[in-house]
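[SOLVED] Need 3D model of a two-part complex

Original post:
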Amino acid sequence: MRKISKFFVAGFLITSGIFSCTAAYQAQKVQYNDYRIATGAKQDSSILVLLKPYSDSLSKSMNDIVAVSETDLEKKQPEGSLGNFLADAMLAMAEKSYAVHVDAAFINSGGIRLPSLPSGNITRGKVFELSPFDNLLVIQKINGKTLQGFLDHVASKGGWPCAGVSMQIKDKKAINVKIGGAALNESTVYTVANNDYVANGGDDCIMLRAIPQVSNGYIFRDAIFDYLSELKKQGKKISAKTENRVSNAE
Amino acid sequence: MQNRRKFIGQTALATAALLASRTALAGIGGEEGVKKLTILHTNDVHSRLEPFPMDGGRNQGLGGVAARAELIKKIRSEEANVLLLDAGDIFQGTPFFNIYKGEPEMKAMAAMGYDAATMGNHDFDAGLENFATQLKHGNFPLVICNYDFTGTPMEFKYQPYKVFKKGGIKIGITGVGIEMSGLIPDNLFGKTKYLDPIQKANETAAMLKNEDGCDMIICLSHLGYKYKDNKVSDEVFARESENIDLIIGGHTHTFMDEPAVYKNKTGSDVVVNQVGWAGIMLGRLDFEFAGYKRKNLAKSHTVVVGKKTME
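Solution:
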């Protein structure tokens, strides 16, 4: 008994004295929980108060209905209806704004910031969410060889929204490329619309960096608004679908 | 004399029993007792201050800072040791940002009591000067160890790491950002220098471990979870890391079903988690720590991921 006591006393002193200063902790176990923040959950009233002035001011300008969509539009790769709608808008408005024939228009997949757009009324705010960046719509004259290189890059990224073009993706390369229905010719110079982020080499589009841009300061989001107001004037709704512009080769 | 000896003996036995029972109750090893830490985290909130509108969209009704704040408040009332962290892309995605340039996002984060955040590529979107200006409203440290902001408006507005003490646990938090070139327009990042995230994070973690004596090291990462090619990602980073216990990720908007666990360079477990985007989810990780005498610390250790707790 006496020996045991001494042993414990020593242990106790050591534990509470020297070693407590040099105790270290190691993570051994972790429990997890991902809470879904959903409607109906209790809200912090002080945060609602904080947001109110911003939110009230925004709702004055952002809740207008700018278009009606016939169908649910989806962002997808290699091709999706949402991307087709936006690429069509880019091509049409590039031609109108720059008064030139535009052979092809592209949008980087990462440039579309909503995964989908439900059918029905589209608010002004929704278009801001879809295209929040103040990127400009620009034009470049690109020879067929460089364009093929750009399309190979697009293929390696899984396919981007485009208009005026059809292609297939095989081994991360673009094959069977057609521009305006005709096979891509390496020596032809094409007029191509892009946003300036891509034209400046964004999303690793280094092949476009050195090519001169024509730019009149037209923000791509404003081009979308203009396209939608044209549709509205004509009494039309958004009706994009997928149509094998970009597909994966068998 | 006999009484005194008996008293000391009994006290020692009682203490030993107490220590043993603490260990036994927790069901995990350790000589110095068990400690708990709750990590709450978000990433890629992208200015989603209000829930997605009820327009029939996929995410309708989800997200929103007011509901998140209430949940955070509740968890803080239940847990003693909580850290609230964000892995970047606070900005860009709703008209709030187009009009107010990040002010309400930062004010909301301050109100929720964020402890630290790192920087995402879209946090550059309105320029570095704007980010530095808005950061003042956030009232949290911006941690990043692989961006050198010398000569930019962010120069004195960030720190490579920060050490926190929570309930007897010392936690070092650092952050890593994604390569800017090819992703962020040159004019937006300006003179910012991108440094190797794995090398910088390992250097920072080694210092936090060996010099600051941190028990846990967390890296907030905006590298992205994983890629098809060999581009640096959280997966690559976790495997090549050393001394880092947890990577809170972002950029790829990945909704993970459960945290992933990787073996690092020295065979220790690294937990990686990411919670999608837009504040649709709040991530929660409840860590249990076992205490050891420092000299007895295992060179490598494992972390067991328990079942998902009920909401």
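Edit: The longest strand of chain A covers residues 23-36.
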